[in-house]
C-alpha cells in the first residue's frame, strides 16, 4: 500500500483519516498496524507537499509583464 501522487488532496486526507480511525480503535493486528502507520506517514507527506505547493502558489502574483513576484508583505 503506497500513497499515490495521482490521489487528490481530498482523497489523501480521507484515506489518512481512515487510517487514523483504524489505528485508534486498537483492534488491528500489530503487523497490519505497522503497515497502516507507514501508509499514514506517506499520506501525510503527500498532503504536506500539496499544501506547501499551494502556499507557494498563493503567495505569488503576476506582474503586467507576466512575471511571478511575491506579494509585497512577503517580499519585505
UniProtKB/TrEMBL annotation:
InterPro entries: Exonuc_VII_S, Exonuc_VII_ssu_sf. The keyword Hydrolase applies. Keywords: Cytoplasm, Exonuclease, Hydrolase, Nuclease. It is an enzyme of class 3 (hydrolase). SUPFAM superfamilies: XseB-like (SSF116842). It catalyses: Exonucleolytic cleavage in either 5'- to 3'- or 3'- to 5'-direction to yield nucleoside 5'-phosphates. It comes from the Bacteria. Pfam families: Exonuc_VII_S. GO terms for biological process: DNA catabolic process. One of its GO terms (cellular component) is exodeoxyribonuclease VII complex. GO terms for molecular function: exodeoxyribonuclease VII activity. Its main location: cytoplasm. It is found in: Cytoplasm. Its EC number is 3.1.11.6. Belongs to the XseB family. NCBIfam families: PRK00977.1-2, xseB. Bidirectionally degrades single-stranded DNA into large acid-insoluble oligonucleotides, which are then degraded further into small acid-soluble oligonucleotides. Heterooligomer composed of large and small subunits. This is Exodeoxyribonuclease 7 small subunit. It comes from Vagococcus entomophilus. The gene is xseB.
Amino acid at each position: 500500500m503506497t500513497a499515490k501522487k495521482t490521489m487528490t488532496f481530498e482523497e489523501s486526507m480521507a484515506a489518512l483519516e481512515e487510517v487514523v480511525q483504524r489505528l485508534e480503535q486498537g483492534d488491528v493486528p500489530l503487523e497490519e498496524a505497522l503497515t497502516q502507520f507507514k501508509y499514514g506517514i506517506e499520506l501525510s507527506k503527500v498532503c504536506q507537499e500539496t499544501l506547501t505547493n499551494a502556499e507557494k502558489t498563493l503567495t505569488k502574483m503576476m506582474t503586467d509583464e507576466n512575471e511571478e513576484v511575491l506579494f509585497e508583505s512577503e517580499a519585505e
